[in-house]
Amino acid sequence: MTFSPELEARFAKLLNSYPPGRQRSAVVPMLLYAQDEIGCVTQELVEEVAHRCGVTALQVDEVIGYYSMLHRKPLGKYHVQICTNIACQAVGAEDLWAHACKNLQLGNKEVSPDGLISLEEVECIGACAWAPAIQINYDFHHQVTPEKFDRLMQALADRTYSARPS
Fold this sequence. Notes:
- The protein has helices spanning 5-16, 27-38, 43-53, 57-66, 86-89, 93-104, 146-157, and strands spanning 78-83, 110-111, 117-122, 134-136, 139-141.
- By secondary structure, it is an alpha+beta fold.
- It has two domains: 5-66, NADH-quinone oxidoreductase subunit E (Arc Repressor Mutant, subunit A); 78-157, Glutaredoxin, CATH 3.40.30.
- A five-stranded mixed β-sheet has the order 2-3-1-4-5, with helices on one face.
- Helix 2 runs antiparallel to helix 3 (43-53) and helix 3 crosses helix 4.
- The radius of gyration is 18 Å and the shape is elongated.
- The mean pLDDT is 92.
């Protein structure tokens, strides 16, 4: 499998950071970095990471099944995750989720026809103190109201979104 020179360098540095025999620890970061570059986790990627880390493809598949941030289907350019776990739920996450689904006309793990936005309901993003919380790609947004959500989505549609957390 061919990756960009930057990703190959990142993989080499990552694999060299672990003691001999411990390269399996690189499975998750390698999958994440490659997913960012190629758009999703393919079977070819699974086999490549397994080979480089000295594990079986089945072991890599088990990792993918466990971690919700690894995806076998391409996501939108902007992947919107809305936490609906108990802390977020207590302050309106269910209403926020319903609002998002209605306004984006997307269901869980669906991608907009233009490929700009994908939507996912998640169990926890570790921002309970600032609930309800959402994550857009790797950026967190706290105390999100339906109105704030609409402003964020408009910024995505206008392509003016910046990574500044709010």
